[in-house]
Write a structure and sequence with these properties.
Layout (H helix, E strand, L loop, with lengths): L8 H9 L12 H17 L6 E5 L5 H7 L4 E6 L2 H14 L4 E5 L2 H7 L4 E7 L8 H11 E12 L3 H14 L16 H10 L3 E11 L4 E5 L5 E7 L4
Parallel strand pairs: 1-2, 1-4, 2-3, 4-5
Antiparallel strand pairs: 5-8, 6-7, 6-8
Length: 237
């Protein structure tokens, strides 16, 4: 049994306080609603989700899990925020979302319970909020089947990301609540690549995600200076 939970109580409390606003598209979670279609479309270019089993690690209120289920995947969303999961479950009931369930369980615990059981694992905007991101990456690798895909998205750590993701997004444009991100917890692509290699995952593709304050739109591109995504794959047996 896991004795030390890989979670920051302050981070859980921070998102739990906002849980009731997860599905308000004009709330603090508006950016997640805006980038979700972009991320989902990119994932689908690499692995069509219809008929796949998928776990969304750190699912929060279920934005990605819900939309993936609507693409035909059988989705399990996991998180350690009780309030966020209740919101996700309520939304699934109200929206009659097919094939999506939610559990309050850590990535490490689920990996120990059901190794090699998923076709697809996603972990979006979560690694920069936990004490030990390498442990989460390793757990994601354990969950996925040989030949399966694991997707990560997180924030780079450099002066540009500090200016844009913290100063700009939190203090100037008010896109996110102040204190959403801590600079020291951001993860360089080289660091995430190391975690992936150590976990036995092979990087297949990378993408960047940018925000244009003039058009107020997000776009996928090859600029990984601030927000970036990794598509990785577990070698087939």
């Amino acid at each position: 049994m896991q004795t030390t939970l890989n979670a920051d109580p302050a981070e859980l409390a921070k998102f739990s306080e906002l849980a009731h606003r997860w599905w308000d598209t004009e709330s603090e979670f508006k950016p997640l609603h805006q980038i979700n279609p972009l991320r989902l479309a990119w994932i689908q270019t690499l692995v069509p989700l219809a008929g796949k089993t998928m776990v969304d690690v750190g699912c929060g209120g279920g934005i990605l899990a819900d939309s993936a289920a609507r693409q035909g995947a059988k989705v399990l969303g996991i998180d350690l925020s009780t309030k966020a999961l209740k919101v996700a479950q309520l939304h699934a009931l109200e929206a009659e979302t097919p094939n999506v369930t939610y559990r309050e369980v850590s990535a490490e615990a689920l990996a120990a319970e059901a190794p090699g059981s998923m076709d697809v694992v996603t972990c979006m905007e979560m690694l920069e909020h936990v004490p030990n991101p390498a442990s989460v990456v390793e757990a994601c690798a354990r969950m996925v089947k040989p030949g399966g895909w694991v997707f990560f998205s997180t924030l780079n750590r450099n002066p540009m990301s500090f200016i844009q993701a913290i100063v700009g997004a939190e203090y100037v444009l008010n896109l996110l609540p102040k204190g959403t991100h801590e600079y020291a917890k951001m993860i360089r692509p080289s660091e995430l690549a190391h975690y992936c290699r150590e976990a036995g995952l092979e990087i297949q593709a990378t993408k960047g995600l940018s925000y244009n304050p003039l058009t107020r739109r997000y776009s996928m591109n090859n600029n990984t200076q601030v927000n970036y995504l990794f598509a990785t794959r577990k070698p087939a047996a």
